[in-house]
């Protein structure tokens, strides 16, 4: 029988944009952990009268005790980024810092002459992070007080303030979680980390100098009772695709049969639009990204149990979706696009974190790849699931599932038109946050609505379908972008804006502002589909048109690439594409 103390997952995040996605993921787990605002949809519930939590927190979190005797509960996580990529975050945060020692006490000075110390200027904390620290101090005395008066959250205008993922992070991490690649500086045009083989060499160098695998990876993995799998988030358009390849090769030596799901992110900067593609710099940069992505796709597919490519959405890709009218997403902001991708990953992963209906990662991935040759998956999302109040019947399922000819799902794994016919091989559906009707006379009931919704999705799209229903909506902490509109506080369609009576010398009815949305219903779909072959064919075409001799940097280092390597990957990707042929 499954117990909550077993079946842990270790997450590895590689690269700046992956950490943008990961920060949203971890922030959602502990909505408002140390402030005066308590979300009703937070995963963590407390008190004798609190409902039993739906999510097994111990799957991705770990308990510990610091040297000062402080009990901790931190993500089971390894974070990799370039120098300058961690922003204001320090390796030793307030939970783990030793207040009895000066940071310089650990330095052994053997030089007896004058010694000068040089320190880089600290990355400034924005208003949001400063306020978070103040609220933490103010509410330490209230940590055991679960019912706190709900107040309107201030708007910190994070769209303008977020430049790095640490600018909206609200989580304490274990010191062993942070791993910095000191050979490369973030956003350094003179020595960019933009070649697949650079990542392979950087992994070797990091292990020689820091031994992060033996020291940090083993620390997290070997303290687990029974690891059910590893969750990788990595960028694939730069050197981190090569870094992830080497990392996974090392893991496979120690864990040859353990499940690994890898989410690979393409460039959020959108260099593929026509306006920039044909300029000399962007054309060269785009070709390098295409080459990196192709090598990453092939290698990460070989080493993972399931590889899921993900594309940050572009501005014109959401216009046709029925739920996009409630979403004002700025595709130029990684802070925004990463939030959308994170919601899809977080919701899909509930299958192997759900306490009521737990499915081990190995079982989920084996069902997704039941043919045993479809190791490239696809992730789709409706964010939010556009439903109304139970009293209004939630909404017409036929209109919710299909908007014209287009599926309600936003395909995060391909750039294809939503109206393109596809053949689903298998799918795992997770619907969450559909509220319960308060009056039994309302029709349809919640269970009837969900059954009709899932039946419709199975009939239209699926052969083999897995269904999961989660009561808890997707939480939106104050660190999340405020890009929803036309929704109430619970993320349901607000058909009738509330009227408020105000008295200022005379009575007048005014539209009251819609309350800040604190959670939203969501539906995700993790699948294998024939659409994947189009993505592979695009990458094959890129390999055919790129002359490796024009990019001598790829031949540098111990893991330099040759034209034979390109040819081999191209031929093997032909084989991968054929697997997803409709025939």
Automatic annotation (TrEMBL):
Query: Which residues are in the DML1/Misato tubulin domain?
Result: 160-351
Q: Which residues form a coiled coil?
A: 125-152
Q: Which Pfam families match?
A: Misat_Tub_SegII (PF10644), Tubulin_3 (PF14881)
Which GO terms of type biological process are on file? Answer: mitochondrion organization
Q: Which Gene3D superfamilies match?
A: Tubulin/FtsZ, GTPase domain
Q: According to the lineage, what is the superkingdom?
A: Eukaryota
Domain named Misato Segment II tubulin-like is located at: 7-133
Q: One Gene Ontology cellular component annotation?
A: mitochondrion
Query: What InterPro entries has UniProt attached to this entry?
Result: DML1/Misato, DML1/Misato_tubulin, Misato_II_tubulin-like, Tubulin/FtsZ_GTPase_sf
Q: Where in the cell is it found?
A: Mitochondrion
Keywords associated with the record: Coiled coil, Mitochondrion
The job of this chain, per UniProt, is described as: Involved in the partitioning of the mitochondrial organelle and mitochondrial DNA (mtDNA) inheritance.
Family designation: Belongs to the misato family.
State the protein's name.
Tubulin domain-containing protein
Protein's organism? Jimgerdemannia flammicorona
């Amino acid at each position: 029988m499954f117990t909550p103390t077993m079946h842990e997952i270790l997450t590895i995040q590689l690269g700046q944009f992956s950490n943008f996605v990961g920060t949203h993921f971890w922030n959602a787990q502990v909505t408002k952990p140390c402030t005066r605002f308590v979300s009703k949809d937070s995963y963590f519930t407390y008190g004798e009268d609190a409902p039993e939590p739906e999510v097994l927190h111990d799957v991705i979190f770990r308990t510990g005790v610091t040297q000062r005797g402080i009990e901790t509960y931190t993500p089971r996580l390894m974070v990799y980024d370039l120098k300058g990529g961690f922003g204001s975050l320090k390796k030793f945060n307030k939970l783990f810092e030793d207040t009895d020692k000066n940071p310089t006490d650990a330095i052994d000075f053997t030089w007896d002459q004058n010694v000068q110390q040089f320190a880089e200027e600290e990355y400034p904390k924005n208003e949001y992070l400063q306020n978070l620290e103040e609220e933490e101090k103010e509410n330490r005395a209230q940590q055991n007080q679960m019912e706190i008066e709900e107040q309107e959250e201030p708007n910190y205008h994070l769209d303008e303030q977020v430049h790095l993922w640490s600018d909206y992070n609200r989580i304490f991490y274990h010191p062993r979680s942070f791993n910095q690649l000191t050979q490369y500086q973030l956003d350094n045009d003179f020595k960019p980390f933009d070649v697949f083989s650079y990542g392979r060499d950087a992994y070797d160098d990091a292990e020689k100098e820091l031994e992060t695998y033996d020291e940090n990876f083993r620390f997290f993995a070997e303290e687990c009772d029974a690891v059910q799998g590893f969750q990788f988030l990595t960028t694939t358009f730069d050197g981190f695709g090569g870094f992830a390849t080497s990392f996974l090769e090392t893991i496979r030596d120690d864990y040859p049969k353990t499940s690994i799901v890898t989410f690979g992110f393409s460039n959020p900067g959108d260099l593929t639009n026509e306006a920039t593609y044909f300029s000399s710099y962007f054309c060269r940069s785009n070709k390098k990204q295409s080459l990196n992505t192709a090598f990453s796709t092939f290698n990460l597919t070989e080493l993972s149990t399931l590889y899921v490519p993900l594309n940050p959405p572009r501005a014109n890709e959401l216009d046709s979706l029925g739920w996009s009218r409630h979403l004002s997403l700025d595709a130029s902001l990684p802070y925004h696009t990463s939030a959308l991708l994170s919601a899809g990953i977080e919701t899909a992963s509930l299958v192997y974190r759900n306490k009521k209906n737990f499915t081990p990662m190995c079982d989920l991935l084996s069902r997704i790849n039941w043919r045993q040759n479809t190791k490239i998956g696809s992730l789709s999302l409706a964010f939010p699931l556009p439903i109304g109040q139970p009293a209004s019947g939630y909404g017409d399922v036929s209109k919710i599932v299909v908007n014209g000819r287009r599926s309600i799902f936003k395909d995060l794994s391909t750039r294809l038109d939503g109206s393109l016919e596809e053949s689903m091989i298998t799918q795992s559906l997770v619907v969450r946050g559909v509220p319960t009707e308060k009056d039994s006379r309302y029709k349809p009931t919640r269970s009837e609505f969900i059954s009709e919704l899932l039946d419709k999705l199975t009939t239209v799209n699926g052969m083999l379908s897995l269904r999961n229903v989660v009561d808890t909506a997707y939480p939106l902490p104050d660190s999340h972008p405020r890009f929803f509109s036309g929704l109430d506080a619970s993320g349901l369609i607000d058909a009738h804006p509330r009227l408020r009576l105000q008295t200022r010398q005379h009575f007048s009815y005014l539209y009251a502002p819609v309350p800040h949305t604190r959670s939203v219903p969501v539906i995700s779909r993790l699948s294998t589909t024939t659409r994947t072959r189009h993505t592979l064919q695009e990458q094959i075409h890129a390999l055919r048109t790129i002359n490796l001799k024009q990019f001598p940097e790829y031949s540098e280092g111990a893991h330099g690439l040759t034209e034979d390597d390109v040819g081999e990957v191209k031929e093997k990707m032909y084989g991968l594409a054929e697997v997803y042929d409709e025939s």
